[in-house]
Amino acid sequence: MVDPAPVSQDDQPTAAGVEPPLRSRRHGAWGLYRCIRFERRTDPGPTGRYRVAAVVVALGIAAIYISIVVPSDKDPFGAIWEGTFGTAIGLSTVLTVAAPLLFTGLAVAVPYRMGLWNIGGEGQLFIGAWAAAAVAFGFPHLSGLLLIPLMLIAAAIGGALWILVPALARAYLGVNEIITTLMLNFVGIFWMTYWVTGPWAETGSAGGIHSRSIPEQSFLAPVMVGSVEVPLGLLLGVACALVLWFLLRGTVLGYEVKVLGGNLRAGRYAGMPSARRLIMVMLIGGAMGGLAGAVAMVGDIHRYTDSLSAQAGYSGIVVAVLAAGFELAIPLMAVLFAALTASGSTIQILGESSDTTVALMGLILLLAAMGDGLARYRISLRRPSAARGLVEAEDEA
Amino acid sequence: MSSGLIVSSIATALVGGTAVLIAATGELIVEKTGVYNLGIEGVMLVGALAAFATGQSTGSWVVGLVAGAAVGAVFVLLFAVAVVGFGADMMMAGLALVLLGAGATGAAGSEYLGVAPSTDIPTWHIPGLSDIPYVGPAFFEQLSVGYLALLLPVLVWVVLNRSRWGLNLQAVGENPVAADMIGIHVKRKRVSAIVIGGAFAGLAGGVVSLGVVHQWAYGVTGGQGWIALAIVIFAGWRPFGVIAGAWLFGGLATVGNIGQALGWQIPSQFFSALPYLGSVVILIAVAVLRRRRRGLPPWPAALGQAFVRG
Question: pTM of the full predicted structure?
Fold first, then answer.
């Protein structure tokens, strides 16, 4: 590996003015590389800019890939545009897909504020949807006005309970929350499979695993803006993002979470209740994950089934990371990734695998991670002549 | 419970544990240098598809496994460049590998879905030993690679603790700055460990597709890469602990077979979820036990720390 040297030491403020010695190589790529000046910052640097760049580069790679594998007479880019933002139907689809993504994004972003990773969104989604469906099947005669809020509350509680054990284990025993939250995804999926093939299975249906439909009054109709359907779940998600943004940035509670996330010991020394705050952010995250399932169910799918998630649990991680944990940027990112998911369906119709979008999300995440690394350096160009001068000076020495 | 059932269950448990044993041993090497690669699941998937496809076209499971390991080693270079080269967040880069591996194999593997394999990893009956009543069939009728996989942790232990290369590698994970000062090339050590870990994970994926499941399917490894991470923690970062962890996992995965054979009235999904549920319980139990013990924590002191030369 090549060191991105010359690198100045973090604790030497004067190092900026001192030119570290250069190796005596004048020509070729190495010489060009030497013209770029890397200086290590003490702060994380402008990560936002690099994350935007990561998305742009990844989308560029995806566009090149699509133009290679899909014959151009099928006009893949026109089809993708029509399937996402180009038409009212496309836009309605994107917004519908974005609603659960917004919630799974929040499910990751809130614990992330304290440096914790909740990658159990997929499991929380299925448990939340299960709780909502249980309420709907349990009280099939309630009016929709009462039933839907009850379902949402049940989903939030279900999701929060699903993350309770990982949260407690992390708070009191230091058990790595990444692995425990993820393991429970698999458990949640088997839980779902049991209910949709057993107690709630639709009798006489063929193909796919799904429950019977939830009562009709629990369907949440979208709001029409012009001819575009805006799902109410999306609006609820935006409201949640606003509330959480205020909670985490405008209250003492949020301040404590931030301090504890930055330096646990300093926060504890200042008398902040670290275990309680940790459990709080994890449970909020779990509740958001649970709501994702309920929102997808009442607003779109209307059944308890494996297609509720459409990988939302995992895309939510990428959404939260790209929004850099900033709650207000999450709705925007959710719409972007919903458009990616919708493009996946378009590509599938054109004969390519929709899994390409999963790979694309991985690519975006990888590039974003690299960008975070690069953002830690102040990068500037050194005049080639200056670089050469230095090399020559060193050669003479 | 009939003795035949116990025998066949132990045999299945050991077969089922082979892949995680290999993958966890690889991850152990990586973590010994202070880097954790959360992307094993993705690497295993890539290895599983590469091994299956190569096995299919060459008709040889050996070539298939070698291809799986090679592709796994190349695939983790992405992680190595991001984490060691760019100083990227290990968590993010690891998750990226999972998504990349799942997406890429899903897109590239569609032509192999439901295809019957043209080659299989054979089962070896150790002559003599496999004739011992009860014990023989349980322990000495294993996948050929299963026996070799048992040697891996032993080999890794010897290399890590008895060779200069291995001791230097561990020094990097304990204190990269000090290691750098005594002239160990920290970044090179980390990259080699990541590549070795990737090869192990790719090999493990090949064992899954060619030896255990006998086909290619989307997400065929079913979370075993994540279980391998849990096993490393369970093992306390000791190679021999990995063997115990892998057998324990394999055992949990076979409880379902016993239950089915005995006609227990418990939904099959419960048994399918058992290895994952069990991992959570085991991680918590290990943490409780460790709390009582004094002394240094078992993990490499610099685990998760990026290294930048100041």
Answer: 0.86
CATH of the domain at A306: 1.10.3470
pLDDT digits over B71-91, tens only? 999 999 999 999 998 888 898
CATH number of B3-292: 1.10.3470
In a domain, A337, yes or no: yes
Residue B125: beta bridge partners? B141
Domain ranges of chain B: 3-292
**Is B187's CB within 8 Å of A3's CB?**
yes
Of the partner residues B89, B106, B187, the one whose CB lies closest to the CB of residue A369: B89
The per-residue pLDDT for range A344-355, each reduced to its tens digit, is 888 777 777 778
Range of the domain at A101: 88-351
Does residue A76 lie within any of the structural domains? no
What residues in B contact A5, CB-CB < 8 Å? 309
Based on the fold, state whether residues A97 and A228 are members of the same structural domain: yes
CA dist., res. A102 & res. B258, Å (int): 43
Give the A window 190-229 contacts with B, CB below 8 Å.
190-191, 193-194, 198
Q: What angle do CA B125, B128, B134 make, to 5 degrees?
A: 75
A374 CB within 8 Å of a chain B CB: yes
Residues 310-339 of A with CB under 8 A from B: 314, 317-318, 321
In whole angstroms, give the CA distance from residue B50 to residue B46. Answer: 6
Amino acid at A247: L
How confident is the model over A292-325, as pLDDT tens digits? Answer: 999 999 988 888 988 888 788 888 998 998 887 6
| A355 shares contact with chain B (CB less than 8 Å) | yes
